[in-house]
Amino acid sequence: MSANESIVNLSQIQEKPIHLAKYMYVLEDTNHQIEFQDLKLNVSKYPFHQNPNAKEAFNFSYSKSTYWLKVKIVNPYDHEYSSSLVVSYPRLKTLDLYFETNEGMKFIPSGYAVAAMDRPYPSRNFVFPIVFPRNTTSTIYLKVKSPNAINLPIQLWKQKSYDRHEIDDHVLQAIYFGMTLAMIVFNLFVFFILRDISYLLYVLVVLSSAIAIATHNGIASEYLWNNSPWLDQYAINLLISVVLILFLIFMRTLLQTKKVLPRFDRVNWLLILIQFLLPIIYIINFDLIIKWLVLSHTITSLWILIIGVLCSFKRQRIAYFFLLAFAFLFLALIISTLRALGYIPTNVFTMEGPQYGSAAEMMLLAFALADRYNFIIKEKEIAENNVKINLEKSNLELEEKVKERTFKLNQTLSVLRRDLFVAKKIQENSISVDEKLLEQLNFVFKYLPVSEVGGDFFDITHLKDSRFRILVADATGHGVHAAMITMAIKGLYDPIKEFELTPSKVMEIFNEEFMDNFVSLNSLLTAIIIDIHFEEKTIQFASAGHPSAVLLQNGKLKLLAKTGRMIGLKKQTHYENIELKFESGNRLFIFTDGVYEAFNQNDEEFGEEKLHALFVNTTQLSLSEVEEELLKSLQNFQNGQDRQDDLTILGFDL
């Protein structure tokens, strides 16, 4: 080992990962003849070298070579160290890892040529769970080959930190695609009311963009197709062509370019034809066309931007919105293209730029359509004022149209209010507690949704003898969408809640059923199932990423922590079953995160520590008084701020 050789020390890893590119050594195999054993036996024949320009990632652009990467990592601790090596770029066909320690060598194949179910870790990125032996220096080799652009953002995470990061990432993805779905549904609704083709074209642009983003960031490979190397290789550029075709058509309709810029309209059709024909040739001969196709995407995007500028010079009000909207997407696409071609480095900004640009473009185009509708109304009013002879008739017609639309909107609003009232009653009935249970159990509960309906749900079931089963669940978000998920929870849970199985097995069945029936909703939920056996004085529980329930024993807290990941992330998830003993006089509190995720005017969180302290300091009060004290404390803490999330808490005297 050279004295100047870069070595990664695991003590450097904190909550954030280490970017390994600046520590790694690279070997390019242009003939695809080098095997791992050759590297080990002929070290001097195959000299690795460092890339001084690599900071967060390697970028080899479109290359036919095979690349070998090597890094040494030392574990200075007296215990094994669990970590995750993550390559956050989903379009690598071959990505094989060789892990060499003093205990031997381990080979882990990956890349999109390997089916998702056969990879070492299910994720939209390529993740290698690695356990480093104590007090040793290990060597990691990566073998990389792909017909797509070879970008390698390689990170080394602490295992627990990456698990948390992945949950946060899924939540952010759910927010983006949830917003996309909301835009699609709303504008489709407007299209059916107004019959304006612009709204339908907007829906198609947003839908195709969302699918392209899902393909770009690996979501599509994880959830839409998990064993299709062909789609992983070809889909992203095909989808970008589809997006650009739809955008060109949308631009012609929205900006009326045939009328405003007639000389340029033929160029629009020529670019549409190019974006239709090039992908066909691209499928036939990938290596020959790929760079030309990527270049055509850039040229077409630039042309759309130029048309937006020209229409802005024509003082088209809607062109200002269109230009600003597409500028975000154009910038993101240019950055992505330059990264793919190897002209700029690969990092978080250049990788995630298209998704942020897509979100900004989607919102601004929605404003453009709204402004267009307002402009049409004003244009009609000006035309009617100019036609003085028919002024009275036009006013009457306009008044009738306004009344008719107002009537329709009032009808729609009335139906929505009625449906919301019915949904509220249905949800209240679904979480009502049987009076017999109130007599058998000494407990209290509080359920406070943010709006008319919420995303929290709980159920208490008497299994037999002195055994009771409690479920508390929390769907992401709140309002009508989250309330619909709670109805789904009830429908799935009711048939299985009385099974003579452990809580963990019931949770696994529940997760399987949810993934089979509702994965298309892009929703996640946390849940905890607790079995209380009063004769044996035992508690068994399984928690799917749910906030830790609190068991109070002689003034001390025992937390019922999560035993598995959230519901809706992955099928065939295993949940650990944990059993605890309790004594008479102990207390159990089960709640959702809305109890402690309350913020005041300074954006400070109430937090779990204050909640736990309140439980400890109120042991002399009754359960009802504890809940009243909690609500009072939250109200004083928020100081007039509205609650941001649904609140549910159950308290039991054991």
Written description of the protein model:
With 654 residues, the chain is of the alpha+beta class. The chain has 3 domains: 7-160, Immunoglobulin-like (Sandwich); 166-385, Rhopdopsin 7-helix transmembrane proteins, CATH 1.20.1070; 432-653, PPM-type phosphatase domain (Phosphatase 2c, domain 1), CATH 3.60.40. The chain is 48% helix and 21% strand. It is built from 16 helices and 23 strands. The strands form 5 sheets. Strands 1, 3, 4, 6, 8, 9 and 11 form a 7-stranded mixed beta sheet that branches. A hairpin with a 2-residue loop joins strand 19 (549-553) and strand 20. Helix 5 packs antiparallel against helix 7 (265-284), helix 5 (229-255) packs parallel to helix 8 (286-313) and helix 7 runs antiparallel to helix 8. The radius of gyration is 30 Å and the shape is flat. The termini are far apart. Keywords: Hydrolase, Membrane, Transmembrane, Transmembrane helix. One of its GO terms (molecular function) is phosphatase activity.
Task: Give the beta-strand count.
Answer: 23
Q: How many domains make up the 3D coordinates?
A: 3
First-residue to last-residue Cα separation = 63 Å
Based on the coordinates given, report the CATH architecture of the largest domain.
Answer: 4-Layer Sandwich
Q: How much is the radius of gyration in Å?
A: 30 Å
Separate helix tally: 16
CATH topology of the largest domain: the name is Phosphatase 2c, domain 1
Instruction: Give the overall average pLDDT.
Output: 85
Helix content: 40-55%
CATH superfamily of the largest domain: PPM-type phosphatase domain
- Major β-sheet profile: 7 strands, mixed
User: What is the highest CATH level, the class of the largest domain?
Assistant: Alpha Beta
Q: Tell me the structural class.
A: alpha+beta
Shape: flat
Strand portion: 15-25%
Low-pLDDT segments, ≥5 res: none
Protein name: Serine phosphatase RsbU
InterPro entries: 7TMR_DISM_rcpt_extracell_dom1 (IPR011623), 7TMR_DISM_rcpt_extracell_dom2 (IPR011622), Bact_Sigma-Reg (IPR052016), PPM-type-like_dom_sf (IPR036457), PPM-type_phosphatase-like_dom (IPR001932)
Transmembrane segments: 174-194, 199-219, 234-255, 267-284, 290-311, 318-341
Keywords: Hydrolase, Membrane, Transmembrane, Transmembrane helix
